[in-house]
Amino acid sequence: MGLTGGIATGKSLVSSMFEQLGAFVIDADRVAREVVSKGSPVLKEIEKYFGKDVILPDGNLNRKKLREIIISDKEKRELLNSITHPAIIERENELVNQADSNLIIVDAALLIESGSHKRFKEIIVVYAPFEVQLKRLMERDKMSREDAERFIKTQMDIEEKKKYATYIIDNSDGIEYTRKQVKELYETFQT
């Protein structure tokens, strides 16, 4: 099953709630960090196309520099995705095959944008309205409103993502309300 949401919608919170209940959760962000680790073939490809500036002196990816490049350049963002996504999907598939749970969830922010959602019969979208996303992102990352809006707009609009959902978890009304929805959904998967 795929799980997605927009930045600052609470996707990671929901993912951890499912994990606490017993689901096997594969975090695509963690997998993405793994596939671009120091010396990896994917990191070498990134350096080839984005230059030495995106590599730190210790040989690791300079995420901040890369983010600055792709945040305002759609073509470069798509190029980066074309380099990283095949390796991420391959690693996720390996982890799915190793899983020992009857509920396996792949948690991925760009699940729909990458086309990866097509691999799943069911999609959970974690939802919070744009203004809630904006407020959370500004507080969490100490961003200006302008930067937060720009960052949110690099992803598919959350209202558009909802159209792909089999299930929607509304995370705009507090943790306990969210936990209740997660628990109810988890229980439906156990029957």
From TrEMBL:
Keyword Cytoplasm: yes
Catalytic activity: 3'-dephospho-CoA + ATP = ADP + CoA + H(+)
Cell compartments where the protein resides: Cytoplasm
GO biological process, one term: coenzyme A biosynthetic process
Single annotated GO MF: ATP binding
InterPro entries given in the database record: Depp_CoAkinase, P-loop_NTPase
UniProt KW keywords: ATP-binding, Coenzyme A biosynthesis, Cytoplasm, Kinase, Nucleotide-binding, Transferase
Family the UniProt entry places it in: Belongs to the CoaE family.
UniProt function note: Catalyzes the phosphorylation of the 3'-hydroxyl group of dephosphocoenzyme A to form coenzyme A.
Protein name in the entry: Dephospho-CoA kinase
Organism encoding this protein: Thermotomaculum hydrothermale
Lineage summary: Bacteria, Pseudomonadati, Acidobacteriota, Holophagae, Thermotomaculales
